Amino acid sequence: MKAFKEAQEHGKNRYKDVGCLDNNRVKLGGSWPHEYIHANYVSTPTNPKRFICTQAPLEKTCADFWFMCLQDRVETIFMLCNYTEKGAKKCFEYFPTEEKQETMTFKEKSQKVTVKFESSTPIKFRESSTAKVVKTILTIEGAGCEKLKTSHYHWVDWPDRGVPTADNSIMELSSIRFSRGPIVVHCSAGIGRTGSVVMIEYIMDQLLAGQAVEDSEKILQKIREQRNNSVQTDHQYLFVHQVMLNYFEKRGLFDEATIGFHKDFTDQYSKCVL
């Protein structure tokens, strides 16, 4: 984590105790004034750069964030935190909205990136769900890059260090799987809620590719070797399993014995996360 340590004095890291691995970190190239951003590529079995897991932008890293999106042609962003949670600042207001300002410009030395608001709609889930997710279309341009249109998904009610209801909502956001470029996922630190989404998508990637799903601990280890400390809490780890078990049951993939196991697991899970 040498680059992470060197970036500390420049105020580019949100948390001193959340490191960024050197081996697969995203490097800012081209004419950008520096290469460091607290972000890592995370692979799935069929895609070596399926995700970019990153921290929530700080005021001084917004330009870096948007240049990263331009550089890597990011078509989808997943935001899993709010700007303020439990009275603490968790993320800088890094994208424009219809209510506030329709265009924002971010600068890093001689370079600048402009982000323009296009439209915003709440996601309507097919199945009953309490999840609140807002999709915003943004246009990004600048720093000598080709203009880019990006879909930004803000999951409004996923609690910090906690879990949302383990319903099918996260599976209904499956259109993100068709993104050609890497999918950017961030919460505040970019490891807990972020790691939970990535782990679910890693399992889905194996399933859709017709591969046998690996043991959970092996999958988590592979993700953590790419994004340090991914999946922070026991509840988040259990949430991944509950979501996947619910998904399997809906598709009639369980025999009678497994249906009983799933019911017991669900009962215990419900008591844990209350």
Summarize the structure.
The chain is an alpha/beta fold. The chain has helices at residues 2-7, 62-71, 169-172, 192-208, 216-224, 234-250, 256-273; strands spanning 25-27, 36-44, 47-54, 76-79, 84-85, 88-89, 103-108, 111-122, 133-142, 145-155, 183-186. The mean pLDDT is 95.
What do these coordinates show?
Residues 12-247 form the Tyrosine-protein phosphatase domain. It comes from Caenorhabditis tropicalis. Pfam families: Y_phosphatase (PF00102). One of its GO terms (molecular function) is protein tyrosine phosphatase activity. The structure is a single chain. The protein is an alpha/beta fold and 274 residues long. 30% of the residues lie in helices and 26% in strands. Helix 6 (234-250) packs antiparallel against helix 7. The longest helix is centred in the C-terminal third of the chain and has 18 residues, at 256-273. It starts with a helix and ends with a helix. The mean pLDDT is 95.
Domain count: 1
Please report the first level of CATH classification, the CATH class: Alpha Beta
Largest sheet: 9 strands, mixed
- Structural class label: alpha/beta
Main attributes of the structure:
single chain, 274 residues, alpha/beta, Protein-Tyrosine Phosphatase, Chain A, 9-stranded mixed beta sheet, two-stranded antiparallel ribbon, 7 helices, globular
Write the layout of secondary structure elements.
Blueprint: H1 2-7, E1 25-27, E2 36-44, E3 47-54, H2 62-71, E4 76-79, E5 84-85, E6 88-89, E7 103-108, E8 111-122, E9 133-142, E10 145-155, H3 169-172, E11 183-186, H4 192-208, H5 216-224, H6 234-250, H7 256-273
Parallel strand pairs: 3-11, 4-10, 4-11
Antiparallel strand pairs: 1-2, 2-3, 5-6, 7-8, 8-9, 9-10
Helix pairs in contact: 4-6, 6-7
